[in-house]
Amino acid sequence: MIKLGVLGLGTVGSGVYEIVKYRSDMLKKATGEDIEIAKILVRDSSKDRGLDVAEGVMTENPDDILDNPEIDIVVEVMGGIDKAYSYIVRALKAGKHVVTANKAVISLHMEELHKLAEENNCGLLYEASVAGGIPIIKNLKEILKINKVDDIKGILNGTTNFILTKMYDEDLSFEEALSLAHKYGYAEADPTDDVEGYDAARKISILASLAYGTHASIDDVLCYGITSIRTIDVVEFKKMGFVPKLLGCSTRRDNSFSAIVEPILVEENSMFASVKDAFNLVDVLGDNLGELEFYGKGAGKEPTGNAVVMDIIDIILKNYSEFKFEVDKSISSDKGNLFTGLHYLRVSVDREEDKAAVVEKLNASGVQCKYKELERDIIIVTERISSNRIEKLAKEDLGLAKKTFAYLRIESESLVSIDQLNI
Amino acid sequence: MIKLGVLGLGTVGSGVYEIVKYRSDMLKKATGEDIEIAKILVRDSSKDRGLDVAEGVMTENPDDILDNPEIDIVVEVMGGIDKAYSYIVRALKAGKHVVTANKAVISLHMEELHKLAEENNCGLLYEASVAGGIPIIKNLKEILKINKVDDIKGILNGTTNFILTKMYDEDLSFEEALSLAHKYGYAEADPTDDVEGYDAARKISILASLAYGTHASIDDVLCYGITSIRTIDVVEFKKMGFVPKLLGCSTRRDNSFSAIVEPILVEENSMFASVKDAFNLVDVLGDNLGELEFYGKGAGKEPTGNAVVMDIIDIILKNYSEFKFEVDKSISSDKGNLFTGLHYLRVSVDREEDKAAVVEKLNASGVQCKYKELERDIIIVTERISSNRIEKLAKEDLGLAKKTFAYLRIESESLVSIDQLNI
After folding, report:
1. Is the Cα dihedral B241, B246, B252, B258 positive or negative?
2. What does the record list as GO biological process (chains A, B) (predicted)?
3. Which helix (H) or strand (E) holds B390?
């Protein structure tokens, strides 16, 4: 008998509860063990959750789980950072295995937590922290056994993919699409984490850390959101045959890596372009096996609950011991320098006569580009430059104020020079 | 020290050889063992293969491997059916684990071979037999631990996907595209297995067998190839916004399943449509986790070699014991009855005046449809009917001779009635 202590009973926690309860036969077959949820930490145990939880299982006291010698595995699905982190630390120090869905905690503390898990002979798994139902972490670990992985990129945030899909397919403005995302429950009350790219940044930092054997912290991830993309941009994207997607990307060359979250223009008949609504897609490039892509639901009760329970199974089967997170201190972040590409840049001006000044500065910048002037906007496509250079071009060379511009890297295998492009 | 005996040193065998040889450190780290290729069975040991194989490792005598008590794992990558099958049986009976890339043997004999493996406490893994570098079998087994999987579909054959891509993107005829596939090494000298769908049928039969716990033999798979698709069809597909793809599909309802390989029309902005050239994509629908898709290289030395070596690692780590292939005799094949959809049907006639007879028979068939007459062809779209019914319509109701028609099921979430369609 394996006893679980579950911290939190929100969306993911309910999913875990239902799978463990209603699929006990399958779990027994997969692990050889009976699995029981012995305790669930909730904020208010009197609240009716529509779940048939037995008397005495819910508790408001974390000690009932963390100090409970009967509990083998602690499942952290409460969210938040500081409290969740301290509970995970306590659980590991008490010799309990930990399964968590908490990308914020893992992204911040993975190096320390893995060390703690190892010292205490415990498993620490967090499949559900990246891309919900997609088993990307387990597959990445498998791939890494006999592949060097330098490049990872993915649509890692369902909320922004939903918004961009609506903006592109149904010509909604960013604000209209965001409001629809709220209506469908895809966006949080405060959508900052999603639309500014911070959520995706945590996820790509976790994947990059595993792939490179370094702790890529969220501070190493350049992060641009999608809030500056306007309807006028979408019109231009369509003319050029591109679809905007918020991608988390990481790449390594020698002992440097770059990680970034930014809106990218992908070709309209590409795999990434076909990912609609709240789905996720992760692309991993292994040096033996080439490109491998994983597509599925990036969030939701059942898919994320499924990921958590798969981790529980692997803990019981001791599959966690096959992968050891080892830190290579010689690898360091090179910010956005390793990412280069043609870039789309739209600059908006208040008055038509302000455009000349922008064009003058553009010419003085030394960056080759093509541009066309619209009534109150200038649409620019630059030569191949780095992600750092486009940022400098917009903010320093052109001296643009926030909200007056948007830029996106163009990812295209066929397009290598601005000469090929008619804008 | 783990000693491997490798049967065959063709494309896949060379890939395995190179990974085992040049990634020995990674393999040691992943398994804790030194791994050595002790013997390789070849037809002609004097042939120069450009591989640096040590003296005495190559042999032309299978007994050197199958009767060799030092060999722990037999890796069958020789292809063919009867000989490969008999060697696998001998290896298992001798208590050796078996890793094979042989879809023909597994598709035919998986039930018996799994039984034999179990009786002899051996592992039997065959990741490379389906979709090359994509770890679909391992992931499917993982998903099945806590999901019921009723539906699987995939682009499982790179050769036909290459041909269809060239026909659609570059307006080549089937014959021109096939000749290009030969030129690039994507097609065998005799392409029958690929273009008639038999290769994909073996693969979907293996996946269906695992998902349903039955032995779906290749005889249970309805199989239509792509040889009847003509340029005139591709023109019509484009007008309707569809892309033709050869899909292997299996579905289950209650205790019946249907498995089929057939060209299907998918929407032009769908994931399947974006799979180009020789890539594969497999879609699995789990009842907890929803849709999960896996994309990657379906063939080639490195990707397939990678899949074989991953199996070797899992044998060493004893991961094979987590999945037991159990046969449920209550599940039986219902041919193509479980697949239904609108169908595209093109009928070609020798003389313009023959069209009237076709239209008359069509009206008499009782199948609702829309049609338009071209010079020597009739383009028909039927109401939702089963895969068995469309076959009967073409062959019996219309009495069409082979080579005078082509039909494709239309897979579209938005299109449910022929009234929506303008042909």
Report:
1. positive
2. methionine biosynthetic process; threonine biosynthetic process
3. helix B387-392
